[in-house]
Each structure stands twice: as structure tokens, then as C-alpha cells.
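in:
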């Protein structure tokens, strides 16, 4: 283990003290995000001539090795480190030495690392939530359209404008829809819609997302 307190304390930090102050377990969810951000920073340092090409290659290789070992479950989170940023730094230094590894956070404060990880983590969470929401909407629309087809409508499309569901059917079947409108309204409300409308232009082709 790379001793980050080498210049401050003469002895090793006691385990109880390490566990009390560490956030490594809490930071685990941003493990790969921090690696991504660190790799981007290293490339910037190379482009600004702070790192040589060979130094960059060694640091990136160490970071990717760490990523793979973590995915494969071959590395445990060492609670002697204060946080995940320090753990990653320590791993790189152990791999490539202090002279090269000690440069990985040049020009980068801990606040910079934390802010970047939070933004990237939030973006990832938002993307995941959006995907799940779109999947849910598609499932609801499929159920709505299947129900209308069971009612023997020949051409059917339901569009989501939550809390409004807009129904498109062949205009020649408007009278039929009026006859079963209460059934349709009841079913679509169970799916979560508050208002149900019918497109007076009838069923439209070539406008899937309108």
C-alpha cells in the first residue's frame, strides 16, 4: 500500500481510525467513473507536455489494469485509504512508482475530482432513468394498442402526451369508438392516463413521434 501520510505521520494509521474516516465503500459506485475522469486528465497532461508519451502509457495501463481487476473481483477495496480517489492514486503509484504515478493529479484538486464524478454519475443515472422511463412508456402504449385491437379496431395507434393519451384510429371507425368509449377510457385510466383524446384526423402514417 502506498502511504499517503508518509510526510505527516511516522507510524501507520490504526485500523479503527482508518475505518472511521474512510468513504471508500460509499465511493464504490463511482469507481469506474473516477477512472474515466482520471484517464481524461492524464491525456490532457500529456497534451500540455506535463507527461511524456511513455509516462502516459504507463499510467493508462495501470488504470485499465485496475478497472479489469475490480470488474473481475480480483481487488478488494482497501479501507485504509481515505476515499476512492486516494485508492486509485495509490494503486497507480504502486504499479508505476512515485516519480510517474505521483503526477496523475497534477493541476487537479480533490474538489475537481469530486465535482466531475458527481456530474458524470448524475448523467449516468439520468440516462439510465430515461431509458427505464421510455421502456415503461413503450410497454404502456403496447398494452393500450393491444386492448384497442381486441376491440376489433383495424388501424390503431396510441400516442403518449402524459397525462394525455391520444388515440388514432381509422376515421371510418369513429362511431364504433364512441360506442365503446367508456371501456376504452376505463382501461387507459388504469394504465395511468388522466385524459383520453381522439385525433380527428384519424390514423396517420409516417409520423411515429408526433
Amino acid at each position: 500500500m502506498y502511504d499517503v501520510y508518509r510526510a505527516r505521520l511516522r507510524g501507520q494509521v490504526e485500523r479503527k481510525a482508518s475505518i472511521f474516516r474512510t468513504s471508500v465503500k460509499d465511493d464504490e459506485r463511482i469507481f469506474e467513473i473516477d477512472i474515466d475522469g482520471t484517464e481524461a486528465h492524464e491525456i490532457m497532461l500529456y497534451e500540455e507536455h506535463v507527461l511524456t508519451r511513455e509516462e502516459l502509457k504507463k499510467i493508462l495501463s495501470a488504470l485499465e489494469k485496475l478497472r479489469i481487476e475490480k470488474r473481475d473481483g480480483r481487488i478488494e477495496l482497501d479501507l485504509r485509504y481515505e476515499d476512492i480517489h486516494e485508492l486509485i492514486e495509490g494503486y497507480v503509484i504502486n504499479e508505476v512508482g512515485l516519480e510517474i504515478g505521483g503526477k496523475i493529479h497534477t493541476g487537479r484538486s480533490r474538489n475537481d475530482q469530486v465535482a466531475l464524478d458527481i456530474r458524470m454519475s448524475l448523467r449516468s443515472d439520468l440516462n439510465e432513468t430515461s431509458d427505464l422511463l421510455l421502456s415503461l412508456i413503450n410497454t404502456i402504449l403496447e398494452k393500450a394498442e393491444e386492448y384497442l385491437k381486441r376491440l376489433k379496431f383495424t388501424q390503431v395507434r396510441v400516442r403518449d402526451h402524459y397525462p394525455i393519451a391520444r388515440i388514432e384510429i381509422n376515421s371510418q371507425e369513429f362511431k364504433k369508438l364512441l360506442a365503446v368509449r367508456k371501456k376504452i377510457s376505463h382501461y387507459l385510466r388504469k394504465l395511468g392516463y388522466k385524459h383520453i383524446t381522439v385525433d380527428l384526423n384519424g390514423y396517420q402514417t409516417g409520423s411515429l413521434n408526433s
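note: The longest strand covers residues 156-161.
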